[in-house]
Amino acid sequence: MITAGIDVGAKSVKIVILKDGDVLEQAKTLVGFDVLKSAIGPFENALEKAGLSRNGIERVFATGMGREAVHDKPPINAEEVVSVVVADAKGAFHIVPTVKTVIDVGAEEGRGIKVGPAGIVKDFVINERCAAGAGTFVETMARALEVKVEDMGPLALKSTQTIPMNAQCCVFAESEVVTLIHSKVAKEDISRAIHDAIASRISSMVLRVGVEKDVVLIGGAALNPGFLPPLKKELNTEIIVPEYPEYVGALGTAIIASESEEG
Amino acid sequence: MAEMNTQEYWRWPEYRHTVLDKDWHNSKIITAGVDVGSVGSKAVVMLDGELYAYSAMRTGGVSEATAVKVMNWAIEETGLKLDDLHYVVGTGYGRVNVPFAKRTITEIACHARGAHYIYGPTVRTVLDIGGQDCKAIRCDERGKVLSFLMNDKCAAGTGRGLEVFADLVSVPIQDLGKVSLSVDEEPQPVSNTCVIFAKAESLALLRQGWPKERVAAAYHAAMADRIVDLLMRVGVEKDFVVTGGVAKNAGVIERVERLLSIKSLKPNIDPILAGSLGAALFAKALYEKQIGLR
Description:
The structure holds two protein chains of two kinds.
Chain A: E1 2-8, E2 12-19, E3 22-30, H1 35-49, E4 59-63, E5 80-81, H2 84-95, E6 101-105, E7 110-115, E8 121-127, H3 135-145, H4 149-157, H5 170-182, H6 187-206, E9 215-218, H7 228-235, H8 248-259
Parallel strand pairs in A: 1-4, 4-5, 6-9
Antiparallel strand pairs in A: 1-2, 2-3, 6-7, 7-8
Helix pairs in contact in A: 2-8, 3-5, 3-6, 4-6, 6-7
Chain B: E1 15-18, E2 30-36, E3 40-47, E4 50-58, H1 63-74, E5 87-91, E6 103-104, H2 107-119, E7 125-129, E8 134-139, E9 145-151, H3 159-169, H4 176-180, H5 195-207, H6 212-234, E10 240-243, H7 250-260, H8 274-290
């Protein structure tokens, strides 16, 4: 059976086409002004690469903050929408069957999920729309530091000392970063402080549902190498990062589509 | 060649004032209060418990330097010297950095005391919206704090958030409130949980072709929602008053009043001074105690 999962996130759309449990194609793009339009491009792209048409896909399900934009909307016509937390757990379980805790850090939201047998959600916690607990934090700080966002992680890894950041809000942290720049603190150390801050914020959220091994980190922030070391340290555990951490929600959605009853 | 727009819309004007019909030579007790806030610093001089001179300026990088500067600016035209002040109390976010202050007192106590002076003994609920925090304070007929709640970890619903927004829409911060009230119909508020997201949403609305006024209305409405949430948790009892820099933003205050169905009392004294006024009044009481008058 062929199904597709579309994850319409705050910043990017991810698409996974699944055949009998294996990924046929995956594609992603940034969300533009028109969310549906943004999703159509990579969707058709993935279909083409897989040599399929929309009719060749049995079911398309959608998840993510913007999932309603593709729900029953042609040409994508997602039949059903599923919650991000459920999709995340399912996708992470598919890749790491021993998973007990999923940490999903996207552009605008962070989530901690306790996963039960067969990838069901036992408990979860969300940091709703506070930039300090999500990927946007690093992006905003990158602007203040005048560093490309993809360079932030590698920069942090070069730091030789830890400096504390007091601000817990992105806007206040921005002022704090400017003060640090003026006090001639090295960009490497500021970048590390920024990653330490977001890791501490995420870990205190995740600790509310409890952390049990195996721990899997997914979402776009998992692509940032500067984020993993402080998060491991804060949670005092090993953390598994899948090869394509940003696609896990879409993957889980495609799996749910394949498992759903006809109708 | 096109000129780059370098205007800083967030920059609110600094000011000072002396009450000219008063002469400090005729007074018994001269006290001062310095409120070093995260965004603005305020200094007040009182003669026998009556407002005499004040100043308000932006807090610079070094709080100590700002504290000295704002105090000296307040007494600039009075002929007073720092040594002439009998007692100085520091308050606010940077209160430990007021080098010439004999004591520091929390801004919660000072704002309640200052609101009592500005608005009178009928005040029961004080909403203080400053640069970096928002406080809801319940107080008694003597201006004593009974309970309070504050939001100090998030910029949403604070003056700093408004500064960010002023730059986004290129409207001077002192005009923002008025501009936000010039809409015919109130739009849906933007996100009220985070300034970063509210800013991104506002930008998207501007790109969709929304006029500045309407986007400003959506932003102010979100701020008001958040502020009212805080107020409801501490409970609102009449009379209700607003202090701090954002008290001057009618767009926020009128929306808060609408949501609460309560009007706030209108001040005769600049409400940004509430904290420093409270500090100067505490300074008077402390000085009286020191010299054995109390």
